């Protein structure tokens, strides 16, 4: 399928409405730009952000065997249970937003009984240890991406205006760092961060593991699919597939932090036109996120030092989108209010 083009007629209508609202032009800053951008993506001069769909993709990573996380691999499944029980940060925010939240297991390694509400769509039982082997083969990547695409179809069927993709997977900041380093041709020391809370020695070890993975798999800057297969993770592949489906089917994306942005980088490198469909919610506390945002030409909405993942930073930015739409749709025009124009 082909990535859709934003609706320039709806965009022009939204800009004209902004010009006629009772305020000096540009006085609401980026809130005006957000409303106009959403109008173009939604194909209507009066956009909405009322119906938000959040999908958290979860998977395990073989690279955790290298000691790159402050938490054991078992936490991935434990957090799946926490999402389902409503106790995770993104679960709490989703309730407050009245957003649809689903959890999709695309690659845990552990045998467990999925809680009610969790979709078990394993593409594999965890990714390979990227220090010694590829993360996945092509068929596995395609299965993970298909799970991402299916989540977007469900979101659209449910009437979503905005899609948020979250992730959970112990070790996934290591995979995301390796993937970003390969695509941007940057040394790991520039992008590696604490992830789940590593100290300085832990980050140094993480850098060494990523360096070894990059040396093993060679230069991949110009081949995002191969980079994803050799260095990525199953939840990262699912996110990339979801983003591409959003561009093809016409659903606005509010992208989360470091890992979600690396998935976006993969997807945009594969389909550059997809960039138009991506809004970036926040600047993560992970030190490497700034480089990813720069590569994508992205200016995030928030900078709160968050680095939790799960889609929590994107969910936290939803009220700004709603406010932008409400101001755009409900403010009076100069004619309606009987106010003199400049």
Query: Element order, helices and strands?
Result: HHEHHEEHEHHHHHEHEHHH
Mean pLDDT: 97
CATH class categorisation of the largest domain: Alpha Beta
Percentage of residues in helical conformation: 40-55%
Estimate the strand proportion. Answer: 5-15%
CATH topology of the largest domain: Rossmann fold
Give me the number of helical elements.
14
Form type:
globular
In angstroms, what separates the terminal alpha carbons? 47 Å
Tell me the number of strands: 6
Please state the second-level CATH architecture of the largest domain. Answer: 3-Layer(aba) Sandwich
CATH-assigned homologous superfamily of the largest domain: Nicotinate-nucleotide-dimethylbenzimidazole phosphoribosyltransferase (CobT), large domain
CA radius of gyration: 20 Å
Q: Specify the biggest β-sheet.
A: 6 strands, parallel
Overall SS class: alpha/beta
Uncertain runs are none
How many discrete domains? Answer: 2
